[in-house]
Amino acid sequence: MRDPGRGNVTLVTGGTGLIGGEVILALARSGEAVRAVVRADSAEHARCRLVTRLKKSEAYHGDLLRNINAVAGDTTKSMFGLPPAALAGVHRVIHGAANTQFNPRQDTEVWDTNVSGARHLVEVGGALPPGSRILFISTASVTTAPERSYIDEEAPYAGHANTYSRSKREAEAIVRRSGLDIVIVRPSIVLSRGVRDRAMARSILWAVPIMGELGDIPVDPDAVVDLVPVDYVADAIVQLAMRASLDHQVYHVSAGRDARTFDELRDAVAGRHSELACIRPIGQGRRISHRARARLLRPLGAYLPFINAGVRYANDRFVSEAGRGAPSSLTYVPDLVGLITLGEALDEMYQP
Fold first, then answer.
1. DSSP secondary structure of 55-93
2. pLDDT tens digits along 117-156
3. Measured between alpha carbons, how far is residue 192 from residues 126, 232, 244, 287, 332 in Å?
4. Of the candidates 103, 56, 60, the residue with the CA atom closest to the CA atom of residue 206
5. CB 269 within 8 A of CB 330
6. Where are the domains of the chain?
7. CA–CA separation, 322 vs 344, rounded Å?
């Protein structure tokens, strides 16, 4: 791995994460020079962490490393903890570093990481040449209401929120108030298609084997779950980053009107994994046993309100510029569920 050059560099944060790693590879495939900010003790440590992540991707090829460099930094610090020389030649920033935990025990870390990261993105953006493209990766779940609706990018913040989504609301407000030309990209629920890593596969879908153990679950069967695969999301982010001009400041990267219902997803998974056919969504208003409720709502309670909101996130803006929508979640979710054992799901459920 070498420094890809002094000019026309894209600075990327969050490169060891699910989305950021795929963004880096997508940029490199396009011939773009990438400088990845990695939390590490040294440049060598940063390179090691980054390459370890990139090798998990089906899109990885060793030749791509000629376009990728890693620098040690920290997005929770002023100017991302980078020396001025690390911004030499940078004309584009994609800020993907975030803490996505839903666990209340990590609320302080989630808020500090996501909000301070936005403040420091503004600092970095202010130091770049005029006309530099800056993308901030947020989440569509900053708005979850009106429920059972098709929510576009101009909808106000509303509906159920947790510390993660509230931190993203505050981070968006920070970049909007900055006066800089920062584009906000909001993926919906992102799944790890194309990444050979069992831990990333179960980061959200660990709930499915648990549901199989419980059977009846308090989810409305017709609730829409807006899912997108990470390879699609990464390509979308790179397309938005590289376009000469954009018509909007905020874009959903989502399944939109093609998002499927919980029942459709359940049927697709059960068709491939018969042991999960017992999952039966019974609606929010139905009662389940106290034992099942205690086992289910403690670990899964953070996720159920987002599922039961049943919203589709409008993707018309992005599709009109890119010309293509997201692939059907029914085609890849069963494969990802097959990577998760019940034991792994239980381990994930009880993570501190």
1. TTBTT--GGGGGGEEEEE--TTSGGGG--GGGGTTEEEE
2. 999 999 999 999 999 999 999 999 999 999 999 999 999 9
3. 33, 10, 29, 33, 10
4. 103
5. no
6. 9-198+227-259+311-327
7. 37
